Amino acid sequence: MGRYVGAIDQGTTSTRFIVFDGAGAVVAMAQKEHAQIFPRPGWVEHDAAEIWRNTRETAADALIRANLRAGDLAAVGITNQRETTLLWDRRTGVPLHNAIVWQDTRVDGAVAALARDGGQGRLRAQTGLPLASYFSALKLQWLLENVPGAREKAEAGDALFGTVDSWLAWNLTGGRDGGLHITDVTNASRTQLLDITSLEWSPALLELFGIPVACLPRVVSSSAVYGAARLELEGVALAGMLGDQQAALVGQVCFDIGEAKNTYGTGNFLLLNTGEMPRLSQAGLITTVAYRFGDAPASYALEGSIAVTGSLVQWLRDNLGIISSAPEADVLAARVEDNGGVYIVPAFSGLYAPHWRADARGVIVGLTRFANKAHICRAALEAAAYQTFDVVAAMEADSGVRLSALRVDGGMVRSDPLMQFQADILGTDVVRPVVTETTALGAAYAAGLAVGIWKDTDALRAQWQADRTWQPAMAAPVRRAHLDHWERAVTRSMGWVETV
Question: Residue 408 in 3-state DSSP?
Fold first, then answer.
């Protein structure tokens, strides 16, 4: 058996393949971006075939960079953007439509219609989730109703539904030639079709959303040997699958009740481990499956999901053109003492946790002739910290526990000004680990546990090391003034569009 573990990290903007050694260190990495498709305002799509091509290319490239062959890998794990919804033809392997991305808001009207009978929380007790355009069920319903022939194929089992983990696992294990149609419990819990307690597809929810059971994948553990990969990873055990934020929780070894992590990526996602019983939120958070290793009971988490953080910086680059690269936002932000009174609420897809306001849209407030692009860049970085504060406050209200420290990961944690501001606004320590590729690391851990590379979670805990800790240094009155302005800005983003 090989000594290394591979991880497919399929994110919202790119696909990466990372090779880890037995100490959890990165041996090699390859990455490739994919196109962001915006057919209409509020619509966001990906070409699933492009994502599969990129997965194959990055796997081959990473192995070459590591001077390894597929046989040197003991296992491979998958982690993925979660609620993004696919439907493909079982016989041809061709997607019936572009993937509908988690950020997409085309089903806002359907959300409002469902909420009129029982409110936005009508499915929380069964699914842990509020009614929102975020989750997969209504996206799948849209595909079945709008793609010619899709419903008939789905009812016959000739069209397969999946989130990105299912699409990759099916292709990786043979596709049309016996590919496994599976999804793990963490991804399944984001569809709004899974009973959060039984961890099985709910007949009542399938009937409510009009989803034929024949198109659904089999729900499996997050860590188990599912089958053998083919192609570039010929013979390697596919042995781990986790939604990206749950994978980061595992990568940050948050295995005890009360441990939390925050990932700064396209959006921000803060998860708090709540143990083996699902805990329903009273403060606007999501109840989600955290992981399930082998036949052990599942662990659950409270999650605060923020739609737009890192992608706000991307928007400054691609849509406004005021920076030429993401790191430039850091450089400009450091040139000014503060935000100059500018606040950005990036509600491009409405507001997620803890507000859940589909009628919100992005706003920039506090503009004067004094403000320049440096202030806007600083406000963009600070928006990630403010939104995280809102989620942490909700999480503390739900759990009754004040966070003593926040473990952070993701691309934006390389920004020292942002991490310091985050500590200041939270009033608590912010801790970055040595290995910041925690999402991919979590997928590797899940796969490695299944094949014995790591004995148990204690072995994983022993590998975690802190790289840097930021401590709060902002005076309390200044902090309160910033938060007051932020709250006023959030209020102004609400009620901007009518939902029908």
Answer: strand
Nearest CA-CA partner of 37 in 47, 23, 49: 47
Q: For residues 335 and 352, give the distance between their C-alpha atoms in angstroms, rounded to a whole number.
A: 31
Report phi then psi at 216, rounded to 5: -85, 145
Q: Tokens representing 417? A: 């000004």
Phi, psi (degrees; rounded to nearest 5) at 95: -60, 140
Rounded-to-integer distance, Cα 245 and Cα 148, Å: 34
* Distance separating alpha carbons of residues 175 and 357, to the nearest angstrom: 39
Give CA–CA dist 479/473, Å, rounded: 10
Task: Answer yes or no: are the C-beta atoms of 329 and 323 closer than 8 Å.
Answer: yes
What does 89-116 look like in DSSP terms, one character per residue?
A: ETTT--BSSPEEPTT--TTHHHHHHHHT
- Asked if residues 375 and 413 have their Cβ atoms less than 8 Å apart, the reply is no
Q: What would the two tokens of residue 227 be? A: 């089958």
- Give the tokens for residue 84: 């993004």
User: Could you tell me which residues come within 8 angstroms of residue 85 by beta carbon, excluding any fewer than 6 positions away?
Assistant: 99, 100, 136, 139, 140, 143, 161, 163
Report d(CA 430, CA 4) in Å as an integer. Answer: 31
Between strands 260-264 and 268-275, the pairing is antiparallel
Angle at 328 between CA 326 and CA 330, to 5 degrees: 90
**DSSP letter, residue 412:** G
Per residue in 277-306, pLDDT (tens digit) is 898 888 889 999 999 999 999 999 999 888
Average pLDDT of the segment spanning 433-457: 94
Which residues are CB-contacts of 163 (< 8 A; sequence separation ≥ 6)?
A: 80, 81, 82, 83, 84, 85, 86, 136, 183, 187, 190, 191, 243
- Tally the C-alpha atoms within 13 A of residue 290's C-alpha that lie toward its C-beta: 33
The Cα–Cα gap between 342 and 346 comes to 13
Name 224's Cβ contacts closer than 8 Å, sequence gap at least 6.
Answer: 239, 294, 450
Handedness of CA 97, 98, 103, 106 (dihedral sign): negative
Q: Distance between CA 173 and CA 167 in Å, rounded?
A: 10
Query: What distance in Å separates the CA atoms of residue 353 and residue 393, rounded to the nearest whole number?
Result: 11
pLDDT, tens digit (0-9, with 9 covering 90-100), for 311-366: 999 999 999 999 999 899 999 999 999 999 999 999 998 998 889 898 999 999 99
Instruction: For strands 182-184 and 218-220, give the pairing.
Output: parallel
Beta bridge partners of 350: 348
**Do the Cβ atoms of 77 and 6 come closer than 8 Å?**
yes
